[in-house]
Design a protein that fits this description.
The chain is an alpha/beta fold. Helices cover 55% and strands 19% of the residues. An eight-stranded mixed β-barrel has the order 1-2-4-5-6-7-8-9, surrounded by five helices. Strand 8, helix 11 and strand 9 form a beta-alpha-beta unit. Bound molecules: ligand C2E and magnesium ion (3 copies). It comes from Pleionea mediterranea. This is cyclic-guanylate-specific phosphodiesterase.
Length: 288
């Protein structure tokens, strides 16, 4: 009986695998269509100064509006795009779109705005990556100082020498680089001083529990101290509450990103956000 049970569980498991695989294949096909039919678009989440909420930059986040399935999260489709190699094409489109938009914002008077773009590991290590970056900057006329790339620590640690080379070239071009989801991968801390980096992004999972969990609070404090000693800017992602903000300010975190200040927004909403922040900064000053 036990064997039988085990057997049927195995079949169930096989079926599940087959289904997952099919869903992936379906999605891969849909993604190819999506690119041609312009179902992808970018939203932008503001990053602000922790002290007063002034805009410091934005992060481009890709969105997929599927005609039948509705909204599909990037957390779901980006890994599949990676698996199939489609991320190279989609990633280039994202980079182009983000740079074009940032250039447009500059022309509209939002001067000095820095835009961060997420770069997947495969894309980062791809042979044509640096050329793609160069091409997109030329095509859009965006000054490289206003482009920041967000990379997760895993890729840097797996491919240390190749990553160092790429990071150095990006740095020489004047781009900024930040480590995304910092603290969730296995960083070898000594590499942090050899990589030319600008910023560490503390992962949301630590921020979630900053007011309730002593261990997470210690980790955050340690990351902030580490960043200061390495002369890196430190930003916390996923900040939703005033109490989280207060704790991060106390520890000296430079920048904040999260629903507390703003969800990701459409490009034409950025001016409204800036004006709203200016008003709240003015009232802060008046109340002092
Ligand atoms: P990420 O780069 O760490 O981006 C942060 C994610 O947290 C975003 O989710 C953002 O909307 C969400 N978030 C920010 N603040 C808050 C908050 O206060 N509360 C909550 N609950 N969530 C918050 P999103 O846009 O769904 O993206 C998920 C992940 O998908 C990203 O994580 C990134 O790894 C990947 N991704 C998104 N866009 C792109 C892209 O253009 N290219 C690549 N390669 N990956 C992308
Ligand atoms: Mg990111
Ligand atoms: Mg992140
Ligand atoms: Mg994250």
């Amino acid at each position: 009986l036990a064997r039988r049970n085990g057997g049927s569980q195995l079949i169930e498991f096989d079926n599940e695998m087959a289904e997952t695989e099919k869903r992936w294949l379906d999605m891969e096909v849909d993604m190819r269509v999506a690119q041609n039919k312009q179902q992808f678009y970018l939203m932008y989440q503001p990053k602000v100064a922790s002290q007063n909420g002034a805009l410091r930059g934005v992060e481009a986040l890709v969105r997929w509006q599927h005609p039948e399935k509705g909204f599909i999260s990037p957390a779901e489709f980006i890994p599949i795009a990676e698996q199939s190699g489609l991320i190279i094409e989609i990633g280039e489109w994202i980079l182009l779109q983000a740079c074009r938009q940032t250039k447009q914002w500059h022309e509209q008077g939002i001067k000095d705005l820095v835009c961060a773009v997420n770069i997947s590991p495969l894309q980062f290590l791809h042979i044509g990556f640096l050329d793609t970056v160069e091409k997109v900057l030329q095509q859009t006329g965006l000054d490289p100082h206003f482009l920041e790339l967000e990379i997760t620590e895993g890729v840097l640690m797996h491919e240390v020498s190749k990553s160092t080379e790429i990071l150095e070239q990006l740095h020489n071009k004047g781009l900024k680089v930040s480590i995304d989801d910092f603290g969730t991968g296995y960083s070898s801390l000594s590499y942090l001083k050899t990589f030319p980096l600008d910023k560490l992004k503390i992962d949301k999972s630590f921020v979630d529990n900053i007011t309730s969990d002593d261990a997470d609070r210690s980790i955050i404090k340690t990351i902030i101290d580490l960043a200061k000693h390495l002369n890196l800017i430190v930003i916390a992602e996923g900040v939703e509450h005033q109490s989280q903000l207060a704790q991060l300010i106390e520890y000296g975190c430079d920048e904040i990103q999260g629903y507390y200040f703003s969800k990701p927004i459409m490009p034409d909403e950025l001016n409204t956000f800036i004006n709203q922040q200016k008003k709240s900064i003015a009232s802060l000053v008046n109340n002092q």
